[in-house]
Predict the structure.
Amino acid sequence: MNMPEDEFVEKTFIYKFPTCTTNQEYVLEVPLKIPYGGNVKELMYRIMSSFKLPCYVESDLLQSLEHAIKTLTLEFYDEKAEKALEDTISGNLDIEDIIKNWEKTYKQKTAEYADPIGTTDEELFAAAYHKLVHSPSLEPILQAEHKFGRDVTEVIQMRDSHYEQLTQKQTEEMRVAVESLEAGSTEKSINEMAGRHFEEQSLLQGHWGSRVDALKLDQRRQYRNWIMRLLEEQQTNMLPTPVGSPILSMPPIRPALDNFVHSEEKNTAEYPILEESFTIHLGSQMKQMHNIRILTGDVLDFCRTKKSDSGMDPTPQRLQTALGLYSNDLCGLVLLSDNHLGSYSGITKELCSICQLTTEFHFPPIDEQLEKIREDVKDAVAWRQAHQREGNDSQTKRSTGSKSLQTGDVYITRHSNLAQVHVIFHMVVNDSLRSGEFFMLTRVFAKFTGDINSRHSVILGLRNILKTACCNDVTTLTIPILLVHEMSEDMTVAWCTKRAELVFKCVKGFMIEMASWGGAELKNLQFLVPKGMSEEVFGTLATMLPSIFRVSNPLVFKATSTPQTPKK
Amino acid sequence: MCPALLENEERCFGGMTFFAQSHPVEVCGSNGLPLTPNSITIYGKSQFLKTIHHPNLSTYLDIIRSKHERIVVVAEYNGDPLNSKKNLNTDDILKIAFQCLLGLRYMNKLGLVHRHLSPENILLNKSGNVQLYNFGLYFMTDCGKNVSFPIGYPKYTAPEVFLSSGVSSPKVDSWSLGMIIAELLLTKSIWSGVKLSQCLRKVLSLIHCETSVFERLAREINCYNIYKDLPDKVKEFVDCCLQIHPLKRKIPEELLKLPIFEKFLLQNEKEIEKNLYMNVIVRKMDELYYLWQLAGGDITVELKKQGLIRSRPPILSIPNLVILLGQMFGRRDTAGLFDLRVVKIPLDTLHQRLSHIPYIANYPWLTDQMRVQSQEELIDAASQLPLIIRERDTEYQFYRIVLYDRLLQVYPITREAIIEEAHKDIPPPVRGAVWAALLGITGDIQKYYDMIDKETPTHTDRQIEVDIPRCHQYSELLSSGAGHERLQRLLKAWVRNNPHYVYWQGLDSLTAPFLYLNFNNEARAFECLSKFIPKYLHKFFLKDNSAIIQEYLGKFSQIIAFHDPQLANHLRSINFVLELFAIPWFLTMFSHVFPLHKILHLWDKLLLGDSSFPLLVGLAILKQLRDSLLTSGFNECILLFSDLPEIDIELCVKDSMMMYQNTPPSITYRKHQFNQPKDINWLEPEPGTEKMPRICVDDFLDLLDNSPDRLIAVDIRNNIQFERGAVVGSINIPFTSVQLSLTHIETLGPHAKPLVENKNSIVVIIGPHDQNNALFADFLIKCGVVGVCSLQGGISALRMKSPNIIVAPR
C-alpha cells in the first residue's frame, strides 16, 4: 500500500497564564506539528526553558499541552476521514475501484483470503527424498541412482561409438570418392553423397536421442514412484531395510558394451592438485567465522562424477550432495559462460553433456531449464527496457538496448546428479563465446584502462551471486579466482596477482555486507585457480589470502604447565 | 501444604509470525547507506511494546527476527478468544466491552491504535477477564508501512480505513469494538459466509446509512426483535461506536464516560484496591519466558509444529535469473502470506523443570541487614561452574532472578547486598537494573532526563550522525531506526548536560552497552553513562585531554613493565608506543574493541573495580596476544592491533581480576582520577622518573605486615647508610656499585639471587632520591625482573611513618 510520506499540519498552541504581581496575562504561542511525534513532557520542558517560565506553571502547562495535542490530533484525523467520506458520498471516489484494490491486497497477502495453495508435487517429493536420505534407505537410494546413471552412461557411450564409426565410415567413403573425382564420380554424386551422409547422421542422432530420452523418462518415472513407495513402506512398517530397488525390473544392458567403458577419463591427473585452507574472521567487533580454500583444478571437475575403480559403487561426493540437496546448506559453483544460453558450444555445452550422462531425477533436465531461462530472459529484457536508467552511462545504455543477457547477468540452474554442486551460477562474461576470449578481451581492456576495477559488471555480478546465495541458503560456493577458467601464456604473474587481489578484496567486502542481508552466512568459500597454474604463482595467491582476510587465531595448547605471561 | 510452582498456571505463551516487506532491490537511504531491512525496523520499534503492562492487554514478551525477513512475536496468551464463547448475557457482554475499553484507553494514552480488533484478538480467561491480544501489530509495523499485508479484519474495520490511506486514529477501534459488541448482542454473526468483496461492499455501503447503523445491521440479519428488546443505554453505547462520521464517533476514553459504565468503573476501582496486595508473588511473564527458554523452550519449533513456519527447501525457490541490476526473474516463491493464526503454548515444560522447588522460594526473606538468605547449597555448588554454564541453568537462574528481584525492589537500601551478589554473577534479564545499582543511581532520573533538551541542533550533531550508523551495527537493536534515534538522543543529552566536555568519537561505543541493556529506559541508560564516565574516564572528554591520556598511557606502560618486563622491553625495542593502539581501548573502556555480549561480561566485573581496573584489563588482553607480539616487528604489531584477533573474554576477566588483586593500589594512582583517595599525598614525579612505578608507604607497610614473603626490599643507599639502619630483610645493592650499561642481573653479585628467582613478589627499591631509583628500576626491568617499583619518599618517609621497622642489620 502506498502511504503519503509524513502527513502533518502546522497548528499553533496558545497558552495563557497569569502573573503573580499584575493583572496581566502572559500569552505564549508555540507552533506544533500535528500529529506530534515526540515526547510531550520534553516539549514542555523545552518551552519552559526557552520562554523562561516560572516553575509553578509546569503542571498546568503540561496539562494544557497534552490536552491541546490530543484534541488537535483527533481533529486532524477526523478531518481527513471526513473528507474521504464526503468524497465517497459525492462520488469523487470510485467505490468499486477501492473495493477491488482492497480485495486484491487481501487475496494476495493474507492466508485467510488467498486461494488455498496445497503442497506441490515438487515439495512432496522433496520432503520424501529428504526424509529417506536421512534414514537407512540412503544406501539403496544411492545405489539405485548410481545404477541408473551407469545405464544411461553406457547407452550414451554406445551412441558415441556408433557415431564415431559412422563418421569414420563416411570420411573414408568421402575420401575415396574425392580421390576418384575424375575417374567415375562427379561433383553431383559427391554432393549427393554428402547429403546422404548428413541424413544418416541425423537419423542416427535421432535414433539415439529418442532412445536416451526414453530411457531417462522411464528411469525418472520408476525412480520417483519407487521413492514415494519407499516412504510409504517406511512409514507403515518401519522397516529397517527398504524394499527392493527398481533396478531388477530394468532391461539388462548388453554386456558386450563393457569394452567401451574406461576408455577415456585417464587424463585428469595430469596436473598436481594444489590446495590450501584457512579459517578466517570477518568483522571488527562481532567476528564471523568462515572457511576459505584455494585450490587448483578444472571447474567442471566439481560437476563430473568420478568413476570409482569398480564402477559399481557411488562415489562419496554423491552421498554428500544427496544429503544436502533439500537442506539449508547448498553447494554452489560460479561458471563463467556466454550469453547464448546454448548447449551448442562453449563451456555450457560441456556442462550439458556432463549433466546428460545420467538422469536428472529431481529437476527438469538441463535443456528444459535453459529453455525456461530463455523465456525469463525475455521478461528481463522487457524489464530492463522499462527501467532504462536516466543515467547517461554509456555502458548501461548499450546494455539496455540489447535483446540478450549482458555481462554480469547471472542465470541459475539446479542439479541433483552432479558430483559436488547443487546450484550453478552461470555468469555471463561477455558477448563473445568463450571464456578464453573473454580473457583476450580483458587483456586488451587491461592495456587501456589498467584491468577491471571493482565497479566492473563482472564484480557486480559476483555480488549478485553472493547475495542470491545468501538469500537461498547456498552456504558453500566456489568462485574462479581469476575470473577465467583456462590458463594461457599471456597471463603474467603480475596480472594474476592483481586480478586475484581484486577478487579477494571484493569478495571480502561482499561477505562483510552479507551480514546485513539477513540470509544464510556463507560457511565455505572456495577459490578455484585454473589448473596448470605454476606452484610459485599458486603460492603467491595463497599467501595473499591470509593477508587480505584475517586468519583466526589458532588455539594453541602449551605443553608447559606454568602459564607464560605476566608472572606466576 | 504449599502448591508447587506454576501450578494452576492459566497463562500461556502465544506465538505468531509474519514477514516484513523486503525492500526493492538496491536502494539507499538519504545518507547513502543501504536501507535498514524492515524486519530490523520492526524489531527496534516493537521493543517499546514489551514495556506495556496492563491487566487488559497481553504483555509482549519477545520479538525474534529470523532469516529472510521473518518476524516472530511472542506474547502472553491468557484465555480463549471471544469467538469461541457462546451464550453470553448482556451483562457479560458489557463487562467485555468495558474491559476492552480500559485496554484501549490505556493504549491511546501511549499513542497506540489497535486497528486489528476482532473476536480472535479478544481473549477471555476463566474468571471472565479480557485481554486484548496482538494490539501492537499496527504500531510495530509503523502503521502497516513495513509489511505488505493489510492490517485489520475486513468485517470489523471502520469504513474510513478503506477510503483514505495513511495513519488511523483511535476512533477506528471504537468502530471495531462496536461491531464486535453488536454481533454479541444480536447473538448472530453479521454477514456470515459472505465473500470478501461483498463484505467490503457492505461495510462501505454503511456510509450511506442515515439512521442508526446498529438498527440497520439488526434488520439486515433478521434480528430486529432482539435489537428491540435491548436496553436503551446499551443501544446508545453501540450507536456511539458505530457512528459513520468519525467526528461524531467517540474515542474509547469518552465511551467509558457513558452512564452505562458507571457501575463498572466503581467496581473496577474497588478491585484494583483489593488486588494491590494479592498477587505479589506471582512471577512476571517475561521472567517465566526467559526461564522457559532456558528449559529448552523454542518458539520457532512450536510454530513449525503447527505449520506456521513452512520450511520449503531453498533449492526449490531459487530464481532462474538475476540480472546485473539485481532484479530477479523466475523465482518460485510462494511464502510470505500473512497468517493470522496464533500458536498457544502452555508452560508445561517449565512447570516440570521447576516442580520440585518449594513455592516459598518465590519470595525470599529479607533480613534486617538487608540481605537475602542464601537459598540452597545448589547455588554454592553451581557458582563454581563457568559463567556460560550458569547462564544456561534454568534452576540456578530462577534462584538468581528471584534474589535480585527481591533486592532490587527495595533498592537503594540493599545496594551493599547487590554489590556482594554481583561479585558472583548477574543474570542477563536484570543486568540493566543491577548495573544502575552498582553505579549508585537513585532519584527521579526520568524527570531529570526529560528536562534535558535533546532537540535543539548543536555543532556536534553532524559528527554524531556520522558515528551512529557505524556503532555496533551487527546488533539488531542498535542498527534499528529506534536504536539510532535513541542513541542520538542519549549522546545529545550527554553533550548538553556536560558543557565542560566535548563529544569525542568513541562516546557512541561507550553509550552502546548502556542503551543495549536499557533500550526501553533511556533515562536509566543516560544516568548510567553519566555516572560511568566520571568514575572511569574522568576528564577524558575534555576538549584538550592530552595530559589525561598521556598520564593514563604512562600508567599503562608502568603496569606492563611491572607485570611483564619482557613484553615491555620488546615493545620498547621495536619502538611500539602504546598510543598506537591503546587510546581507543581506554577511551571507550573496550566497548569499541569487543562485541556487545563480551562487553557485558567484562563490564560486569569492571563496574565492581575502581578506575584502575581497566589498566589490568588492557594488560590481560596483551597477555593473550603476548606470543604473537614477542615474535613480531613494528609492522606486524600494527596489523595485529588494527584487526584484533578473537579474545577469550572469560580468561581475560579472570586474568585481570587476578592481576588487580596482585597490584598494590598505589601503583595505579593517577593525578587525574576521580575521587583521589585521601590517604595518599600526591607527589609530582621528578622529571625523568615518570616511567617508574611507585608504591606508597602505606601499601609498603601493609605488604610488610601481611605478606612479607611477597616483598623483596632492595636498598640502594651506600653501605654506611644501610648499616646505620634499614628495613628488616632488605637487600643492600649500593647504586654506585651497579653498572647500568650491562643489563645482566648477574653483575649484581650473589645478593641479587632473590631478584633472579622472583616470580610473584614485589621488588621495592628504597633509595635516597628518585633519579637514581628510576635508573635502577629501569636497569632491573631491562634485566627482566618482575614487580619492580620504588618506595615513594624513600627511607625518610618510612622513618616518619613507622620508625620502629628500621633497625640496624647487625
About this structure: Chain B has six domains: 12-77+279-345, 90-112+150-275, 364-415, 445-537, 546-668, 694-807. The two ends of chain B are 77 Å apart (CA to CA). The mean pLDDT of chain B is 87. Residues 12-77+279-345 of chain B form one domain.
